[in-house]
Design goal:
The complex is a heterodimer. Chain A is of the alpha+beta class. Chain A is built from 3 helices and 5 strands. In chain A, strands 3-1-2-4-5 form a 5-stranded mixed beta sheet. In chain A, helix 2 packs across helix 3. The model of chain B has no long low-confidence stretch (mean pLDDT about 95).
Chain lengths: ~150, ~140
């Protein structure tokens, strides 16, 4: 039996949306308040969804202790209480929450081997959330799910 | 096709233990959840059904009927129970959140008439949930 497991985490970080290839006016027009040179922060709600056959011996898709340990070590400790613009992931990339989704997906996809990674979802504020399902998207990964777009709302 | 989700809550206790493994191995795999006296959660259940909207009623499914089915098939059996000792499928199967979602699917799927079961989601805590879509 194949099941999907979702675990939620939270970290706080700051960022500034600014593209050095654009003029100051274009940056201000594109990013608005998010272009403030001093940056601003969010409490990022992160949800990680993994899938797999439920192991008959353990009743689990994967051991939560493994997932929690990996996320704590590779994500929360690296991204929590940091300015995202200063991290190597965003040296060449504007740290929008779309890009953050893809960066975190990449870390999990490369390093977490105990279950199949389905989705990374970020709740940036109560009004904004973003999802990334990897390059193949949702359609070949799981049954149709209403409302599962790449970016739900902005 | 329209999807409709109904929520319910139940409180239950459980513990994780595989009798085929040694005591040390059970403790290593399941940690605190291996305490044989059990521990409990407030579970939130979300049942999603799908179907065409009936042109006469405007319903995908009669919500009252869905609520009654969830109460009869799931809540009556699991609410305020020790899952390992009082719910038959968990006499031999570990009541993890994943297996709860599968068990609830198996209980509901044959009983739903008008609409088709799409997803069973079980929240063990607000930060942890399992989804089952009836996939093999």
């Amino acid at each position: 039996m194949k099941a999907y497991l979702t675990r939620g985490y939270m970290f706080s970080a700051s960022h500034r949306l600014h593209n050095a290839a654009m003029s100051d006016e274009e940056n201000a027009a594109t990013y608005g308040k998010c272009n403030n040179p001093y940056g601003h922060g969010h409490n990022y709600g992160l949800q990680v969804t993994v899938s797999g056959q439920v192991d008959e011996a353990t009743g689990m898709v994967c051991n939560l202790a493994d997932l929690d340990g990996f996320v704590q070590r590779e994500i929360l400790e690296r991204f929590g209480h940091q300015n995202l613009n200063t991290l190597p992931e965003f040296a060449q990339l504007v740290p929008t929450t779309e890009s953050l989704c893809m960066a975190i997906f990449d870390i999990l996809h490369r390093g977490f081997c105990h279950a199949h990674l389905e989705k990374v979802r970020f709740q940036e504020t109560m009004m904004n959330s973003f999802e990334y399902w990897g390059e193949n998207g949702v359609t070949d990964r799981r049954p149709h799910e209403p409302g599962n777009g790449a970016a739900e709302s902005k | 096709m329209v999807y409709l989700t109904r929520k319910a809550e139940f409180a239950a206790s459980h513990y994780y233990h595989n009798p085929q493994l040694s005591a040390e191995e059970n403790l290593r795999i399941f940690g605190k959840c291996n305490n044989p006296n059990g521990h409990g959660h407030n579970y939130t259940l979300e049942v999603t059904v799908k179907g065409e909207v009936n042109p006469r009623s405007g319903f995908v499914v009669d919500l009252k009927e869905l609520k009654d089915t969830m109460s009869r098939e799931v809540l009556d059996a699991m609410d305020h129970r020790f899952l390992n000792k009082e719910v038959p499928e968990f006499f031999t199967c570990i009541p993890t959140t994943e297996n709860l979602a599968i068990s609830i699917w198996d209980r509901l799927a044959p009983k739903l008439k008008a609409a088709q079961l799409h997803r069973v989601r079980v929240y063990e805590t607000p930060d942890l949930f399992a989804d089952f879509y009836g996939e093999a």
